[in-house]
Amino acid sequence: MSAGKSTSSKNIAGIAILIFMFVAAIAVIVLAGNRIKLRQMLLSPSRPICNKGDYRVYFKQTHRCYVEGKQGPCGQLMILHGVKRDANQSDLFGECQCQTFGQLGCDTRPTVYWQATKRCYFLFDQGPCRKGRWLVINQFNNPTCVTIPCPSEYNAQSQISRRDSADSDPDPKFVYSSYSKCNLTLTQGFCPDGEIVHFTSTSFRPLCRKATQECLPNYSNSFDFELELNITNLEVYPGE
Q1: Less Cβ crowding at N or C end of the chain, within 10 Å?
Q2: Pair 80, 142 in one domain
Q3: What is the pTM of this model?
């Protein structure tokens, strides 16, 4: 009697093991199929990854879709821009780029990318630099930190700019330096009479425009002034 019960228990245990192995095998097959399906979606131009109705782009680092033109997974002062990896690819892949403000040719404050913190900062601002230094573009067109030649003017104007620019586009009026001398944008500065200095979203160099003109359609008639930096003040940061 006990021998029969023992045999029956063994049979039940064996069946349970077989059922468990069967379920586990099904789970493995399903997971493998999902991986293959995801790979096919990533490689096939006929299978969109993201819903195109809401202008979403696929961000590879997080394997998720985000709305194009928004910050999404990007760092501060950055937006997600959609690009095609292949001419035959129907999907747009998201790349983080520095946010630009204002229309083309209009007064604004440029932004630059800082590798060590993986985010963007405003030019001629402290940004990732130590106190008493600000962010500029050197002669190799790379962002770097240098000593602020006019800390009093910078601190005074920064307080005004931050107060006026809360939750809005940056104040186009800010302190910048050229030839180790500080000036204020939207003033005459080095420009001829009747013109003022300004920056645009596409140039790291100060430009001149007519004081009565708010936006420039192009820069062909603008006085292009080359920025000189004090290279002896360069500060090396990790990731540069």
Answers
A1: N
A2: no
A3: 0.66
> Over 50: is that where the pLDDT of 223 sits?
no
Residue 138 has a CB neighbour count (10 Å cut-off) of: 15
How confident is the prediction for the chain on average, in pLDDT?
74
The answer, yes or no, to whether residue 148 has pLDDT greater than 70, is yes
> Which residues are CB-neighbours of 196 under 8 A, at least 6 positions away?
185, 186, 187, 188, 189, 208, 209, 210, 211
224 shares its domain with 175? yes
Residue-number span of the structural domain to which 38 is assigned:
1-43
Mean pLDDT for 58-72 is 88
Residues 6+ apart with CB under 8 A from 221: none
Pairing status of strand 143-147 against strand 133-137: antiparallel
- Specify if 239 maps to a domain: no
218 & 115 share domain: yes
| 124 and 228 both lie in a single domain | yes
End-to-end CA gap in the chain: 81
Instruction: Report residue 171: phi and psi, to 5°.
Output: -65, 125
224 and 147 belong to one structural domain: yes
What does the radius of gyration of the chain's CA atoms come to, in whole angstroms?
Answer: 29
∠ Cα 216 137 70 (to 5°): 65
Residues 127 and 214 in one domain: yes
Number of domains into which the chain is organized: 3
Say how far apart CA 204 and CA 207 lie, in whole Å: 9
- For residues 94 and 186, membership in a common domain is answered with no
